[in-house]
Each structure stands twice: as structure tokens, then as C-alpha cells.
Amino acid sequence: MSKKSDSIRLRGVRQNNLKGFDLDLPLGRLIVVTGPSGAGKSSLVFETLHAEGQRRYVETFSPYTRQFLELLDRPKIDRIENIRPSIAIQQSNTVRTSRSTVGTLTELCDYFKVWFAHHATLYDPQNGEPINDDSPQSAWEKLLQTYPGKTSLITFPIKKPAKLRWVEILDSLRAQGFVRIALKKNIKRLEEIDASKLKEDSVLLVIQDRIALQKENRSRTIEALENAFTLGKGRIEILDTKGQPLLAFTRGLRSSVDGKSYRPATPALFSFNSPIGACPQCRGFGRIIEIDPRLVIPDHFLSIEEGAIRAFQGQVYSECLRELRRAAKKHGIRMHIPWAELSPRETAFVLHGEDDYEEGNHQWYGVNRFFSWLESKVYKMHVRVFLSKFRSYTQCPACDGDRLQPEARLWKWKQHTLPELYRKSVSQLLEILPEGSDNALSGIHTRLQFLHQVGLGYLTLDRTSRTLSGGETMRVNLTSCLGSSLVDTLFVLDEPSVGLHPRDLDRLIRILRRLADQGNTVVVVEHDEAVMAAADHLVEIGPRPGTQGGQLCFSGSFPELRQTDTLTGRFLSGREEIEIPKKRRPTRKAPRLSIYGASKHNIQDLDLHIPQQRFVCLSGVSGSGKSTLLDHVLYQNLLSRKGQPADDPAEIRDIESELPLSEVVRIDQSPAGKTPRSNPALFSGAWDPIRKQFARLENARAAGLEAGHFSFNGGNGRCPDCSGLGHERVEMQFVSDVYVPCQTCEGRRFKDEVLQVEYNGRTVADILEIDIDEALLFFADRKEILRCLQPLADVGLGYLKLGQPLNTLSGGESQRLKLVRYLGKVTDRAAHALILIDEPTTGLHRSDIKRLIGVLHSLVDAGHSLIVIEHNLDILKVADWIIEIGPEAGAGGGQLVAQGTPEIIARSKSRTAPFLREVLHKNTDLAVAEDSALYQASNPASPINNELTIRGAREHNLQNIDLTIQRDALTVLTGVSGSGKSSLAFDILFAEGQRRFMESMSAYARQFVEQMPRAEVDDLQGIAPTVAIEQRVTKGTRKSTVATITEVAQYLRLLYARIGLPHSPVTGEPLISQSETALFKRLRNLLAENPSRTLKLCAPVIRGRKGHHQPLADWARERGYGALRIDGTLVAIENFTRLDRYREHDIDLVISNVSGKTTPKQLRTRLQTALKLGKGSTFLLALPNKIVARLSTTRTDPATGQAYPELDPKHFSWNSPRGWCPTCRGYGQLFDWMAEEEESAVDHLDDFTDGDTCPDCLGARLNPISRAVKLPGKRSPAISLPELLHCTPSQLLDCLSQIKTEARTRPILEELLPEIESRMRFMDRVGLGYLGLDRATATLSGGEAQRIRLAAQLGTNLSGVLYVLDEPSIGLHARDNAKLIQSLLQLRDRGNTLVVVEHDLDTMRHADQIVDLGPGAGIHGGHIVACGTLARLRKNKDSLTGRYLRKKMAHPLLGEYRPLPPAWQARRKSTHDQWIVLRGARLRNLRNFDLHLPLRRLNLVCGVSGSGKSTLIRDLLRPLVETAIQAKSAKLLSKDLIAHQHLTTAFDSLQGGHSVRKVIEVDQSPIGKTPRSTPATYIGAFDRIREIYATLPEARFRGYTAGTFSFNTKGGRCETCKGAGRIKLEMNFMPDTHVTCEDCRGRRYGEELDGLQWNGKSIADVLAMSFEEAAEFFSFHTRLAALMQLMVDTGLGYINLGQYSPTLSGGEAQRLKLVSELAKGLPSLKERQYNLGTGNLYLLEEPSIGLHSSDVERLNHLLHRLVEQGHTVVLIEHHIDCIAEADHVVEIGPEGGADGGQLLYQGDLAGLKKVEHSPTADFLP
User: Fold this and answer.
1) Given 3-state DSSP classes, what are the helix, strand and coil percentages for the chain, each rounded to the nearest 5?
2) Predicted TM-score (pTM) of this structure
3) What is d(CA 1029, CA 986) in angstroms, rounded to the nearest whole number?
4) Which site among 418, 858, 1633, 1753 is 20 to 30 Å from 1509 CA-CA?
5) What is the pLDDT of residues 1474-1520, one digit of tens each?
6) 879 near 603, Cβ under 8 Å?
7) What is the per-residue DSSP string for 1328-1363?
8) How many Å apart are CA 552 and CA 965, to the nearest integer?
9) Could you tell me whether strands 490-494 and 86-89 are parallel, antiparallel, or unpaired per DSSP bridges?
10) Helix 1306-1325 crosses helix 1289-1297 at what angle (to 10 degrees)?
């Protein structure tokens, strides 16, 4: 078991203002971080702890996925140990999609749709009656009850399929033994029916049986009903003996009125995020966007002439108004009276036009037709902009906002549809839902209780997430985290108490405690004393904000903090406090703001009188209606009264103010600025006087500098390259973007001449770097500057730098910054503003609140009215007037509960009263500062549950199993192949662990992470975030290298693209920058060289970006450009059509035609435009499509003047046309097939033969431009990417450490280097330090490939993670496997949980827990046979694994080894036909040895990973033997192969190769990935089955061929699903979903073939058979029977013939591949009769992959059988039980790579055991 540390250790924290302190945070505890605002709390919690925890976990995803995730910067810290995967729950709502709701955020919708599918009833829309699904049993019971004793006819209906004639159907019925039918209520015998008189739509009722409905006939009746249901495709009719109908039954859900069938209830049917359940019109959004009449005619009190129709105002469409005038005059429409007074006839005429309208007849078309006409022009940008003004979202008319399709809304539970339940509040649902034992209902109750406990009982589940406040979003996400049951996770929260009434705080604290008690570490940034008191550990950062903060002031317990002299300690102990005002402002005679009859949300008909020029607080429990009152009632209505646009104001009778309102302002926590260009100096207005001050200086005036020159947002003084930002954003794709100092101004924003001007020793750039407090001192004599900056200090923001971007401020900082605008106006007594503020104490320490209170009072003292929503008791106790809304939340709120002074409220019965009463009477200790013991765990001494529990796992073949897995331990899941191990490990554990963690990521990011569907499991508790390291037996394509599969190539490409120095591929000199003047001169010279040609000047505007790019084309069209060059093809703008949005495109804009006749002025202007749009690049294009020359301001060859394109990571990828060598297309070699195939040809996966080295790139794979980009060295020469990739891992790191960097390039290297280092160092640790990074993966051994995969995944230094590994021992030699086991144990000891799917017995012996699944495979598996320690498993007699652990496999299985033939001797020809001899093998690392392989023996090649086994057998022996067979050559010499370019000559000779019939290699390439691939098709059995069915007499009669019985071609397949048996449902914004085809019911075939049977089975029935059943069914057919028996012999007899190949496990897929290849070698009847050939040469590489020991034993028997049949078998294997069975053993070694390639031994097994230095001998039995 692991011995993990009990704390997260941080060393040298230097993020932002943090001062390099060390800190230990206890794991599994509730930790509060507090301190003054701006002291560095968020820097510690979010930018250090969370950033590192999230970054390390996200690194386990693919680079493609990572580029879409919200990556945080790597924190500045020396070291972090024991960090957990982190989830941040912040005070913000980033959800923008209306598809997300409270129900989806909390996963309640997922639980509801499961529960609803099991408990709801379907109601027939025709008659409102329930629809039931009949069965033979239920039909029998109803018949017996309704017609007891009556003799009846059980019939089933038959309709004529389109491709059959009635005569064929009648013949088929007779052949099946049916005698009578009912036709038009008449009973007739089949021979009486005249087929020619039957109509196409006739329905025959075939009589299945005639039965008296008596109890003794029950069995016979149920059997007859079952058969009738089957033959009638779910429908039967019961007739009396005269043919009159009695009853009808349907299997499935069908209406008894119209016969319409309905889908069964499934969770997907009730999901608006699934194509199955979503309303097709609104696609599950519940609303649609369309023209809104309220926006078209916003003011009904205006007449048409006065502008009632807003769309017809202005110049663009004013002609429509003139046309309306003409029509109105003709038809008598009054244009001068208000719209509201027009008659219905008049309004209908204006809106709908003339009834008989025809285009072109000068009739009035109407407003609606006008908009319809505009809709056809939306390809024009200005039309789209115009229409957007009149569109709005309206409720979907199809689903009435329910989001679900009509069928889903027919299902009800207690007369409630699911959308109706979603519209109820959390509190209401808790009242009406029953308590239940099923897991779905239990999950619903648990999550509803969580929401209720955090004060959100008023929320409805259909409330869209984007409408939630930041505090509500945080609490909803908090309950989601609780519901996910994640453990060992770091949760960081940003002030969860914000927005909570004091009454609800204890509920929140219990939630936080519960999250910690589950085994998580909860770190909360918080100022609330109650939360602090409940914490296990507190950290205070301080002592002051900004640069004066960032120190660790305290770390310890709550009682200890109260004793300290820190700022927080003084407030907690009462030594410092916020005083109650000695005198409040009188309110009795104060003017009033009065509201009458306000109604909105839960506020109904409210009258309220608010004192003005007073400090007024709105209080009440969360959700009571405070925000509705402040925003919708007050703010929106007052805006509307002032004639300003209002968003959704409340309905009111009246609102009046006794004082005039100069301004109505709502100050919320939205960002004060959204770009880095806005900063405190600008926002406060201080920057203008500062700029003017600099402009007044003598040296500024002498230089001609004005105030505009000192602006970084415009003018001529800012740096032109960075536009005054001071930095450049470097896009880093799959790592976080890097901001580097501008190369020109070095981060100082301004031009050099501006920076020459200094005021009191400081430049304008220096001023932007000082904080506000320092600026107040610096500008002490400048009153106009002080007046702007002093309010910033007054609200506690003095620590902000003048130039700090506003988009980096927190919500609380933004809110206080907005207050500054009104503080500057306090001296203006004439103005009276109404200032509305929503919770201004957010993010504030009590010391800051004390300062804020003074600011708020100063606003009121200046004559303004202040209304504040607040729960903070410090604010409430100093207010002049409090208005309490409530008494409860949601429907229970919205009422005026109390109003008055704080003293009056304290005496009331409101929810706030008891808390306010205590602070008014006891000011030293706040009421909320309760004893921390109240919230501690119930038993702190008890250990946290250290188990992962699974209940009711039913995924795939798992049989509803329960399992407990130890955390922080190594658990092995084993069992026979196909027993359900991978289903448990990956489909349940990994899928759920990653899904639950990914729920914390943004909705945008989640769509790029392959998330498996919710697992079929009742309950899963105690799961940590998961990382999967799956089995990867393929070696990629021929282009794959060590660098690509370790992901180092991706980082290096990014590194070269961002900091590489381009050199000329011609001269080798570095490229230089050129001025616009030099480029103009070169352009004129180029035109002079082509005097008679007209060239096109083009600007590259898009490079490698996906999208349809319609907006770019619209922009170009509107500016008069005529053409675009798209992916190398010129396209006229008018012919542009949307591009494929899923492909990357290159687009160039044709600026204009230029020639020698173009005037210099025109030429210069066009060049400037091209360089501006092309970001410094342009090029000349000659027709038809040839680039004449490139021009660039930054990348020009000084010798030739040629310019080169801007660098992109794709330029360094040999998989991209931008980067690959055009000669070899990125392969580094030339192959024969290249001459015949296009560049886009699919790589030849199965062909890894070597070609000739590319003569142009010499194997470097990249084009000349990319090869010429180099990284500069400090003391060594610059190095290109191909040169760098030639290094080993240690050499690579040495080279990177010598790279010369500067201020701009250093941050980029610092971001990428740690990622490269972690992967390279792990390669050294797993013994792969000898590999060059450019080594092709096709040349790697299986063990090397597997260890590289582990290096890529395990290089991340995570703790607290659940690692799920799929047979990591694959491809490893026993010695290397021992090293791997040690790595796994180290990973466990780091505090991780490991679940390993494994068959390796050594791994099991080191496991803490073993779970044995079985007892068989497929339907025979899925049970837990044994679970426990190694000792316990050994004792379990039912465990197959235990049997092999108790007693090793006996060797040899046949009792004795086959004797080897006489040794091969060159001069004894009698030995030549018994051996294959390869002499002088020296390919790659092979050391020039001779290989001897005896024929008709079981040969095995072993050795450590990378020693050369695959090179010897697969890459050298196989092609040579194939060539010898083809040439019928007894002796093949290397000199004979010089003409064969694809064959190696790294050998001397091959003898005996011609003596085998053919070579059959069983490699590890994947099998089919679509539903069209099945085991039967893959092994070739289905072709023969189709031939059998095509020979049936009935098939011949109908003209059917074998092709008719194929489900992949037209003819017999079901055309609805195209033979797939299922249909893919697609809908925008949703993942694709597959459902069973309703027409063929998943059987793949049409009705014609489904009825054609042989031996009682149709071809669809055969596909449903297992191979065990099929072996018996086709026993008459020699070839088929042998194929089926092969599947049974390899342990795959349980698999169905038609099973989808993608659903097979790794082990199943490998064995299926083996059977497919072995089947090729099965002798035909003729070969067996005449004993033709001398056997095949089978080459198998690690066939034991994925096999249990019992299957390995079975495999060995199969291999022996092949040898007994006269074949020669050569295995490359590490499995000891396979080695121990070999007749002849070859060992290569002694090490891997350059230290391997030696022949250590060849001979019988006994001899190998005697070899002293053999790596294998010590492990043999």
C-alpha cells in the first residue's frame, strides 16, 4: 500500500506579488485563505494551486484536445508536491448557451430522464387512454378474462413487401405449413386464394392456431401467441370462428385508434440534448429566433407617418414607406392616427399586404413579406445587421418551450410531463416526489437536498444557467461537485458565502464540510467569520494590498488566528471593529421614491415607498426577490421613463420620484473593461491631465510632442508594432498562450522620442508602472490628477498600478472602480443621482468594508440616493433604512416583510432580525462568528473512507456486480479474455472519473474531449479524476516517430515556429527585415522585369484556419475587392460559396492588378494596403496560378531579395503539405506506389518496407524552408529541427539548455521546456535513452512502443489520481516487466490509485488487490469470481486465475518436445530441406549472424525489448522468404536483389525459403471500426454463408444471388438503415446518436429476406448466432465448420457472427485477427486429399497479447496443431509460457538498441537454460 504525504507542499511561491514563501496545506481538510483585498489570495489559490492542479491533469489529454481547453499559465513557484487535480468554483457565470439549465448543471436532468423512463406512462393522444406494451402472458390473461371458454383463432397480419409477388408469399406460407387465412372477415384455405385478385394493399390474417380459451390450454395458447407476435412483427388479431374480430394486441407501443407506433421509454427520449428527444424545430433550445412584432412596431402610440414602423425609418428602406403611402391612399388606410387606434382590417393590411398580391403588379406586399424578402438576402452583411435589430427569441411554437419532441411529452407521471416537473422549484419537487430505493430517485433527492441546503430551493430545473448570478452559479456548481462524489480532488472556491443570507451560512458550511469529508481538499478564499470558524486550517496573506502584500502572515487554526496581531486576527478578536453610527439620518420627512403595483417574477402587485438621499439596504433571504426589485422594477422602469432602452422591465402601475433624477446608475460586478487597453488611469480620468502635464514640459514642446503623443491607445507616439500594448500575444495552441515583450519598444509601449521626455525623473511608461498610492505622492502638487486618483484610494484600490488592464480585475474590484465615477461628483450638490449597487462587499476584507462604508456615506452626504442589496451585517447595521423582502425564496417570497431603521428591523420577525439584533447589541463578536466545533466532522479522529465502491454495474456483459476497490493501492482486474475487465475499467471507472471532472470545464471545452456516455451503473462513490493509459498495439503510420508518439514533436514544432530564426534555404544566411521603401523598390524592379505581364498583388489573410469564411468574403465584397485565392485557386467574389467548415483553408486576398504601367503613387498605396492586411507579407501572382515573388517586412533573403512566409507549427510537420518535403511527401524515403497515387493518398499502414532515401531532404522529411529554420546556440552552432530530432533524449535536453534567448523568446522556451524535459527524463527512467527521436515507430519493438506510451502519460507528476491501465506488460520482456512493476509501485506510493487490466502473473503477485472476472467470456462472463489478496485468490477453487497462481502451467503440453532435425550443414544437402537458413543478418542493429530455423517445428524468438527480434523476423526474414517462394529459389543471394529497390540487401544469403508454400504474418493492425465490420465478415465466413443461402430453391426462384444477402449492398438489405441495423441521428449542437432501426428492428435485412429460411433460420438469424452455435449449424460444410471451430478453439465461441467489431475487447480483437490470418492457411479439400505443399510459414508477433493464462494454454495447443499439420511456426514472444513450449528457441540481445542485435543462443529450450548471460534464462520454469 502507498504511504502518501498528508499535505500539499509549496516551496518558493512567487506568483504575482507573492514573496517566495513556503507553505504546507493539509490534505483532505477545509482550508480558508483570507487577507486584505489585493494581498495575493487569488494568486495563491487560483493562479498557483488550481493552475498547477488543473494543468497537470489536462496534460494527460491529447495535444489536439488541450488546445481547446482553458489552460492556465504555469505558476511561478520553485516546487509543488502532492498536488491533486483541481476544480475551480468561482464567483462568475461563464455559461452562455441556453441549452444549459440548472437541471443539466447539477446532473438532475440525467437522473430525471432515467427515473422518468422507468416510471412514466404513455398516453394515446387520440383518446387520452394509457398505451401498454402487450406480451404473450398479458394477452393470455386478457383473453381468458374477456372470453373464457370461447374458441378463437390466433392470427397475425401479412402485408406484401414491395419486391415480392403475392404468389411467392402464398407459396412461402404453404411451405411453412400454414393452411388457412382470414381475408375480409372470411376464413379461407390457402389453395382457395387467387393471388392475381389480391391488391397491393391487401392484408392477410394468417391463422396460427385455433384454441379454446381454457386454463388447461394456457401453455399452448402462450406458445401460439409468441409465434404470432414474431411472425406478425409485433401485431396479432384474435378472431372468432366466423372471422369476426375479438381483440387486437401489439408487442410494442401502438395506438389502439390509428395503429401508430411509439418508441419505448428510454433516457434519450427525455433528453433535450439528444437528437432522439429534442424538439426538431427548436433543436432542444425551447425557443426560436424570428422577427419580433414588438421590435418592428415598438410604440403603438405613434402613427405610421410618425414612424410607428421602425423598419421603414431611415434612408435604406424609406421607399417602402412611400409605397405604403400610395397603397394606403388607394385602400383607405389611415396613416395619421396612432397604431393602437387602427382597425383590425387596417393593421392586417399593413402587416400582411393585399390578399391577391402578386409580385410585379405594384401591389402592397405587407411588412411580413418585406421581412421574408430580406431573409433571402442574408448573405449580405448589412442585411444581417439590419435584421438583427428586429429579431428576438420567442417560445418555440412546436413544443411550447418544453424543448422535447411531441412523443416525449405524451409520457406522464401522475399527470405531470417531464417539462412540467422541470418547471417546479426545488422545494416543490421535494414535496411531491416520493422517497424511493431506486438509485435514480435517490440521486434526485440527494441533489435536490443539496440545492435546498445552500439556499437555492427557489430555483426551477428549467432555469437557464446563463441567467444565474455569480453566487448562484457557484452554489449550483458546488452541489454538482458534491453530487459527482469525486474524491482526492482539490476544490478551490472563491467566496461561496457571497449572496447568502446569514441564515443560510450554516447550510453552506455543512456542504463544504461534507465535500472535505468525502476525501477532498477544499480551499476557500473567504472573509466570512463563520466559514473561517468552521475551517480546519486558515492561511492569511498580507499584511497590505498590492506590492506591500504577498507575505504569509499566518498558517494555523482558527483559535490561533484570533490570538495573532494580524489584520484578520484583530477583527476576529474584537480589538478592531466597525462602529455603529451614533446618529442615523432621519427618514420621516425625507422625500420618497414610490412604486405602485409592481409585478415581476415572484413580486406581485407590490407598493413600496423608499426614502431618498438616504443609505437604503435591501435585505432578505437568497431568492426572495431583491435583485428583481432593484433591476427589473427600479432600474429598468426608471430607464424607460427617461427614454432609454430597457431590458425586460417589470409591470408597474406607476413609479414616481419626489426629487428630480439627474442619473440612474446600476453598479454591478461586470468587468469595468474587457480589453487590456483600459486601465485605472484611463477609467478614473487621470490619464488626460497626466498626458497634458508631459506635453507641457520644455523638452516635449521642443520635440513637437503634443498630449496625443503620450497616448498608448492612439496617436503617433505609441509603438507602431504592438500598437501601444507593450507586448505581443504568442499563440501556443495546446499550451497556454505566452505574452512576450514587444521586440521594438521592449514592453514600454511608446516610441523612443516619447520616452526621452521625463517628468521628475520618470517617463510616461514609468508612470504606468507605479501604483495609485505612489502616484498620489508623485503628483501631490497636481490637484486635477489627485482629484481623479484619490477616490480610487478611498475605495481601497490604491494598490492597483495605473496601467493594470481592467480585464484582470476581480468582480469586487470592478464594482468599486465603478463607484469612483460618482465619488468625483460629490461636490456637485445640484445633481441627484440614484445609485443602485448589488452586494458591494463581494471580495472585501472587513478592513476594506470599513473603508467602503465611509465611501458610501460620502455619496449620500453629497445628496445622492443609495440603494444597496446586501447581506453583510456590517453594512446593514450602518444603513439609514432597511427594506426586507421575503419571507422565503421563490414563490414564498416577493413580499414586503419589514422596513425601517436597523433597530426596527432587529425587533421585527423577519429572517434578518435575529442576526441583526445580536450585532447591534454585541458588537465585538459577530453573530455569524460561531464556534468552529459546530461544523467539524462528526468524528474527526475517524479516517476518511478509503474505498471506491461500485454498485449495480451492468455495462456490456457485466452482470449487475458490486465491487469495492481500495484507494491508494494497486488493483489488478483479471479474468479470461472478454469477461468484462475493460468494461469495468474503462467504460465505468475511467469514463465516469473523467466525465465527472470534465463537468467542471467549460461547455465549449467539453465538446472536444471524447466523453463516453454515462455508464450503466447504479452508484459509484469515492472515484478520483481518472487517467487512462490504454493498450496501443499499433505502431502508427510510416510517418510516426519516437518524437511524435511521445508528443515531443508537437512541442518542438511550436518552439521552432515561435522562436526559430529563419535562414535562406539558398545561401544559408539569416533572413532580415526590410523597410517598406526597400520592398517598394523591389516591387518596381519585379514589374520592370515583366513589362508585358499584368500581375496580381495578393495579401495572405488566413492560414490553416477551419471555417466557412463567409464573413471574410462579405467584408471583401463590401470593400470592392474582386477575387480571393482559396487553397491555391482563384475565385471571383461573386462566385464565392461557403467553404467546408471542418477543413483548414488558406485564403489570400487579391488587392489589385499591377503592371509596369501602374503609377508609383498607386503602386505604393496598393503595397501599403497589402502589407497591412497581410501582416507584413504580400506576394505577386501570375496567371494562371504561379507565385512570382514574395515580399515581407520581416523575412527576406538579403542575397536574393526573396521573402518567405510567416512560420507556423505546420511548417515543421511532415504530415502537412506545408511542412513536408515535396519530393517524398514527408516520408523521408521514396516508394514505388508514390508515382501512382495522389498526395492525399492514405498511408500504407500494413506495408513498412523500406524505400530509397529521398535525394532532396536526405531523410529529414521537411521542405527546404523548414529545414533552414534554426535555434540559435549560446556557444554552439544554430541547429535545425531535423538535426535536433536526430538526438537521443539526453542529447536533446543538452541542446535545448544551450539555446540563446532574449526577453521576447525566453518566456516561450520557459513554457515549453518543462513539458519536453518531463517526457525525455521518463524515457531514460524506463530504459529507452538510446532511442533517437527521429526513429520510425515502425522499427520499434512492441515493448519499446509500449514503454514510450507510458513515458508520455506517466511523465506528469500527479497525485491523488485514479490511473486505469490496459495491460501495460504488453510487449515487455520479463526483465523489463519487473522494471515496469517498480514504476507502477512508485506511482502508487506517490498517492495514486492504480487499476490495471492485466493477465501477467508477476504483476498480480505485486498487487494489493486482485479482482477475477468470469467465469467465462461474453454472456458467460461478467461475474466477480474472486476478489482479494494474492493468498486469498490462490485458495479460491472457483477462480481460473487462482488455479494458475497456485500451480504453473505444465510444459511441454504434448508431453515432450519435438526433436530438432540434424544440424544444417552447407555440404550435406540432406539437411537443406529441413531448415531455413539466413546468413549474415545485419539489418539495423543486427550484428551479422546466421539464423537457423527448423521446418515443421514451433520456433520462438525472444530477447529484451528493442534487441532486434522484429527486425530479424518481420523486416528481414519475411520479405526474403516471400521473394524465394516467388522466384522458386533454393538459395537467395543479396547480390541478386540489387534490382529490387524495396528489398534490403543487409544479408549474405537465404537458403530453404522456397520450401514453404506461403508466408502468413499475423500482425497487430486494427480491425474494422464501423458497424459494417463484423467477425463473420472479417474472417471471410459470411461470404460462404451468403453463397449457401443463394443456392436455396426459393432464392433461385426469386433470382437472388449471393450479393442479395449482403447487408453492405443494395438488394436485400434494409434500405432505411442501409444494412447497419441502426440509424445515426444527427442534430446541430448535439453529439450524434445511434438508435435501432425501427423498420428491420436491428436485423439489417428487408422483409423479403427475413422470411427466407434454411433449417428454420433466416440469414439475419445466422448473424445473431454465436460461433459455438454456428459451428454445429454449419457442420456439413467443411470450410465453414473449420472456420467456426477455429473461433471456438481460440476462445471466441461466445461471440456473435454479426457483432459490431468496434464493440470487441482488445483481447477479442487480437484473437479475431489471429483467426483471420490462420484461416488463410487452412488447406482446401483438394490440398488435403492430395497432400499438396509442404506447409506454410506462420509469423506471429506476440499473439499472447490480451490473453488470460487459460487462453495462452489454448493458444499453445492451437500452435502445436498447426505444426502437426506440417506448418512451420515462428513466434516473437516474451510470455514465459509460450517460450516454454517452443521446440526451437532463438534469443537476441543482450540489450536494446545499439547494445543489442547479437545472437545469444539458438537451439532447444534446455540449452537456453544453460546460457549464463541470457536475460531470459533466469525467468524460465
Assistant:
1) 35, 20, 45
2) 0.71
3) 10
4) 1753
5) 999 999 999 988 999 999 999 999 999 999 887 889 899 988 999 99
6) no
7) -TT--TT-BGGGS-HHHHHHHHHHHHHTS---S-EE
8) 40
9) parallel
10) 160
